[in-house]
Structure formats: structure tokens, C-alpha cells
Amino acid sequence: MKKRFFAYTGLLFITCSLLLSCSNDDDATQIPTTAVTTSKQYKDITSANKEINSVVENVFNAESNIGNKSFSKVKTPECATITSEITDQTKTVTIDFGENCELPNGEVISGSIRMSFSLKLDTESKIEISYSLDKIVYKDITVSGTATTIFSFQSDTGNTKFTTNSDFTFAWTDGVTATSKTNFTTESFSGNTNPDTPPSLIFYSLTTGNSLTEFSNGDRFAVEITTPLRNESSCQYTVSGIIATTENSAVITLNYGDGECDNIATQTDADGNETTIEL
Q1: Looking at residues 53-69, what average pLDDT do you find?
Q2: Beta-bridge partners for 94
Q3: What are φ and ψ of residue 66, in 5° steps?
Q4: Residue 35 DSSP one-character state
């Protein structure tokens, strides 16, 4: 039982980009909605987090030449201009979207992201990446804030790890605002042999973490990955893992299964009712 993978891998993540982006054929929300007016806005937040963090990770991979590109599902749009400068051992990169730059998901973004990181791995094979948002507008939502990602690399295995903490503020034109704080880790592994004939190398990642979103009207969304989300390079869906989402006092879980590559997940609502979701 699976879901389309949103790497943040961020996403960096993922971002809470991994979360709650599923919908059935009538696009009904997959989160509790009793007496809540911000479900649509929350979907926009998860989408914006995914796109922003994934673009940052993708640019870091390209600019550093040491990141793992195996799971990057969100590419940097051609309408974005990438510039960089080096001072001492620090590289600063600006991702300028200009006005109404179209992202791979069809939404538009304006403004720029400024990121910086060391050119060398430290003694623990880690790099700290910091980035800030400058006049970012996603759809019609103004997004501001900062984030920090710790990238680590194992030279003997090629395994990588991204741990991202972000603190973003979202503002809509109708006056609604929200803060979104995320803390997600994605570890990527390589070197597993696929038993198929002929054998081939496969890559997989495990994502853990949590997020908290609070709206100006008092609505509150908390997300926790209770079982690590596993994604494989040979499958476009998450192959296993469980996410629990709390909206105010109601809890819903989404179970992606036991490792089989398919587009099916099981949703359990606050009353314990199970629904099979086709993604």
C-alpha cells in the first residue's frame, strides 16, 4: 500500500511535503475535517513545503556534486535562475524564480531563495545548509521564514542523510495566517541487489519526523511518521510506513503497506473506520 513519494527530501525533505497530498477521484481531503475551515489551506502548506524544500535539495545536489539524486522527484524549473558566489570556504546560491515561474506540479511561484553551505565536509562528514525565503509567493500565498538542513555522507558506502528543520509563516490574501514547523530526516541507502534477473543495484530511502502547523483561527495540525516511510528507486510510490495526523483532537492514520510496489494505502479515521485509498 503506497503513496507517491515526495522527497525532501526534503524537501529536503520531505518535507512535510511527503504528507497528506493524497486524494481520491473527487479530490476529497484525506484528513479529519469536522468543524474545521482550514483543510484546503493546510493542503496548500504541505504542497508549498514539498516544492520549496525539494528544489533546495536538488540545487544543493547540483551545486555541491555530493548529494544523492536518486530520489529527487521535484526538479528545478527552467524558469528559475541559479547564481552562486564563493567566499572563503562558503558557497552562497540564489534561486530566483522571478515572477510566476511554473513548478512541475503546475503551480506558480515568485521570489527567491538564498542558501549557503560550506564547500568542504567537516571531520564528521557533515555539511550545514541554511536558507531563507525572500518575497516568496506560492499560488497566492506569501511564504517567509528560514530552514536549516544537515547533510551527512558516508564515503565508504555512499549513503546520505538529510535532516531538515524549517520554520515558515504563510499568509493568505483573505487574512488567514499560519506557522508551520517541520523536522524531518531522510536517509538514502545504496548497494542492495535486486533478486531479479539480471541482478541490478537498487536504492532506497527511509524518512522519519514530524511537523506542527497552527492557524490564526486556532486550528492545529500535527503530523508524525510513526513507522519510517520507505521509498525505492524502482517504485514511484512509497512502499511502506505509517503517518499519523492529528487535526485539533481527531487522529487519522495512513498505512502504505508491507513493501509491495502498488498505489494502494489504508486510511483509518478517528472512529477506527478503514478505507482503501487508490493513489
Answers
A1: 79
A2: 83, 114
A3: -130, -5
A4: T
Would you say residue 278 lies in a domain? no
Q: Which residue, 139, 80, 141, 142, is CA-closest to 115?
A: 80
CA 99 to chain centre: 23
276's grid cell: 482503501
pLDDT for 235 beyond 50: yes
41 inside domain = yes
Chain centroid offset of residue 36 CA: 24
DSSP string, 36-63: -S-HHHHHHHHHHHHHHHHHHHHHHHHH
Residue 232 has φ and ψ, to the nearest 5°, of -125, 145
Instruction: Assess contact for 169 and 186: CB atoms under 8 A.
Output: no
Count: domains in the chain: 1
Q: Is residue 143 part of a domain?
A: yes
Structural domain for 111, as ranges: 9-217
The confidence band for 217, taking pLDDT boundaries of 50, 70 and 90, is: very high
46: left (phi over 0), alpha (psi -120 to 50) or beta: alpha
| DSSP codes of every residue in 101-161 | EEPTTS-EEEEEEEEEEESS--TTSEEEEEEEEEEEEETTEEEEEEEEEEEEE-TTT--EE
Q: Is residue 81 part of a domain?
A: yes
The strand pair at 274-278 and 13-14 is best described as unpaired
Q: Torsion angle, CA of 14/16/17/18, rounded to 10 degrees?
A: 80
pLDDT on residue 72: 52
